[in-house]
Amino acid sequence: MRSKTFPENLSQNKGLSIRIVSPEFGHVSPESAVQYGAAQRLPYYFFLFVLHGNSQEFIDGETIEVGKHELFFALPHQLRHLATTRHSADYYKLGFDDECLSRLPRKFPFLLNPLNQQKISFMPDAAHRLCTTFKTLNDLLRTADTDPDLILAYLNSLLTEINAAYFVMHKKQTTGNIDKFLGFKLFVEDHLTDQPTITEIAEKLALSTDCLYRIVKQHSGVSPKEFITDRLIIEARRRIYNNQLTSVKELAFELGFNDPGYFSRLFKKVTGKTIADFYQDLSL
């Protein structure tokens, strides 16, 4: 069994680590909300589906506008900032952890975000099905002793619908290419601070460096080297937010950089700010 990462006091079911929120249900008390702070490194999967109106999500330093019939999702370890204003939307929010996901009968490739898009738009028919499933989960989670298998059945249906919509614009792409890109992303995640070379990654995936370049460029819009650099800077920003006392030298070494000066220059080149600027922003 996988370890639970969902905050125990947030779960709405005795047998599962899951919570749903809608305008009229599921909100945590102001006292409970304070303990999580304005920024949180997510320990679970998070979804926001907007039925009407619009909302904003702040993830890993980016602002994502979410409108009618659009769904935003965030993954464990991403840094999510809570909005300072209320939603002008009718919506459902859903959170569950990896242990809950492991109890479903299939895997969902979109949760690896191979296409680097965290917002999905739905056609009216699909949006209606999604809304119906969210509503059912909302009803089921009103009672803490609801049969977990019943909840999991609807969660599986929900994720199946989302997975199909995620890939619909890319259905002409070959499965092999997507699988290879997923393999690349997984390898980067597993060995991020080791900073493997592009040649080493290509060899592990049984690809030529040219082929790896084409696949990564096709699915992410950047080269393999740029992809890894961007991912390292995102990780640096997350660690700055989570541990404001870490020195630049310590942070550089944690991320696999032998030269803190080079790391500092790279950080500014990618973000447009120095690390000192980021620390200063946090202290305001």
TrEMBL record:
It comes from the Bacteria. Gene3D superfamilies: Homeodomain-like. The keyword Oxidoreductase does not apply. It holds the Pfam family HTH_18. InterPro entries: Homeodomain-like_sf, HTH-like, HTH_AraC. One of its GO terms (molecular function) is sequence-specific DNA binding. Residues 182-281 form the HTH araC/xylS-type domain. Keywords: DNA-binding, Transcription, Transcription regulation. This is AraC-type DNA-binding protein. It comes from Chryseobacterium soldanellicola.
